[in-house]
Amino acid sequence: MVERVGVVGCGLMGAGIAEVSARAGLDVVVVESSEAAASAGRTRLEKSLARAEAKGKIANGESAADVLARIRVATSLGELVDRDLVVEAIVEDEAAKVELFKKLDRIVAAPDAILASNTSSIPIMKLGVVTTRPQQVMGIHFFNPVPVLQLVELVPSLLTGADTTERARSFVEGTLGKQAIDCQDRAGFVVNALLVPFILSAIRMYESGFASAEDIDRGLVLGAAHPQGPLALADLIGLDTTKAVAESLYEEFKEPLYAAPPLLNRMVDAGLLGRKTGRGFYTY
Ligand code: NAI
């Protein structure tokens, strides 16, 4: 049973993973890279839980404060020593994740602890092989916003033990009440391998002047019943993350449809990262 959860990174995804774990009654430690980032992470958690409380979404008659009391935001990875499961949710950068998995392998003490990554596109094997326990390393890939979206992709590498995958399934489906699909360890797994080339095609269409951002998005919302259009979705994901995922997919498959369009690269260079910076394809 997973009872003590660790999360590394308290950004968009890490805060969401910490929140759903604490709302399911688990004890959570989240580690950020600096005091400033930890403080931003705490604010993110407080705001999201306040929204959930206002909508009456917190279970068991609990308040946002009850849930927050189960989450500790720290700045030292040493705080993860007693965790049963650690989910890494730092930037989508292979070198940074490799360094982190080497450290987690040294720090997390329980011999059967699961070391998971929320990566969208980096092969799980690259993270497993830098540890002494690749049989306990796998992808547990949540979707944004984590408190709202039901899906989690379970991604064992070739070296992941079947018992690790089954414990992760029981955590995701039994404890968190989410729904899992099983994926092979290929860049993008199931959803991003299909979704990212679609978003990139929308960016190319906009970049070519073929249609406005609003009309592209309205087209998919009204004509294909998507809840939001691809450019609004890219802004929600974060254009830096969208670019990083495209690059991992391109690196893996060498298909032009995965190549980041020049406009996406220029927007990231400019710091126009979407909702999180207030401007992307739209202004927020
Ligand atoms: P983000 O930029 O919002 O958050 C990343 C956080 O990690 C930042 O708060 C940063 O301070 C922290 N961080 C960076 N290096 C660290 C380190 N060494 N130790 C501790 N904290 C560190 O990014 P986001 O969107 O939360 O993405 C995180 C991961 O989740 C990435 O691997 C991404 O591909 C994946 N993901 C993102 C989704 C999205 O829609 N944004 C959806 C599903 C997965």
Quickly describe the structure.
This protein has eleven helices and eight strands. The protein has 284 residues and is an alpha/beta fold.
Topology:
Blueprint: E1 4-8, H1 12-23, E2 27-31, H2 35-54, H3 64-68, E3 71-74, E4 85-88, H4 94-107, E5 114-117, H5 124-128, E6 137-142, E7 151-156, H6 162-175, E8 179-182, H7 191-207, H8 213-224, H9 230-237, H10 239-253, H11 262-269
Parallel strand pairs: 1-2, 1-4, 2-3, 4-5, 5-6, 7-8
Antiparallel strand pairs: 6-7
The structure holds 1,4-dihydronicotinamide adenine dinucleotide.
Family: Belongs to the 3-hydroxyacyl-CoA dehydrogenase family.
Pathway: Lipid metabolism; butanoate metabolism
Domain 3-hydroxyacyl-CoA dehydrogenase C-terminal: 188-284
Characterise this structure.
The protein is of the alpha/beta class and 284 residues long. The protein has 2 domains: 4-182, Rossmann fold (3-Layer(aba) Sandwich); 192-276, N-(1-d-carboxylethyl)-l-norvaline Dehydrogenase, domain 2 (Orthogonal Bundle). Helix content is 46%, strand content 13%. It has 11 helices and 8 strands. It has helices at 12-23, 35-54, 64-68, 94-107, 124-128, 162-175, 191-207, 213-224, 230-237, 239-253, 262-269, and strands spanning 4-8, 27-31, 71-74, 85-88, 114-117, 137-142, 151-156, 179-182. An 8-stranded mixed beta sheet has the order 3-2-1-4-5-6-7-8, with helices on both faces. Helix 1 (12-23) packs across helix 2 and helix 9 packs across helix 10 (239-253). The N and C termini lie far apart (42 Å). The mean pLDDT is 97. Bound molecules: 1,4-dihydronicotinamide adenine dinucleotide. 1,4-dihydronicotinamide adenine dinucleotide binds at residues 8-14, 31-33, 37, 89-92, 96, 100, 118-120, 142-144, 237-238, 241. Residues 188-284 form the 3-hydroxyacyl-CoA dehydrogenase C-terminal domain. It holds the Pfam family 3HCDH. Pathway: Lipid metabolism; butanoate metabolism.
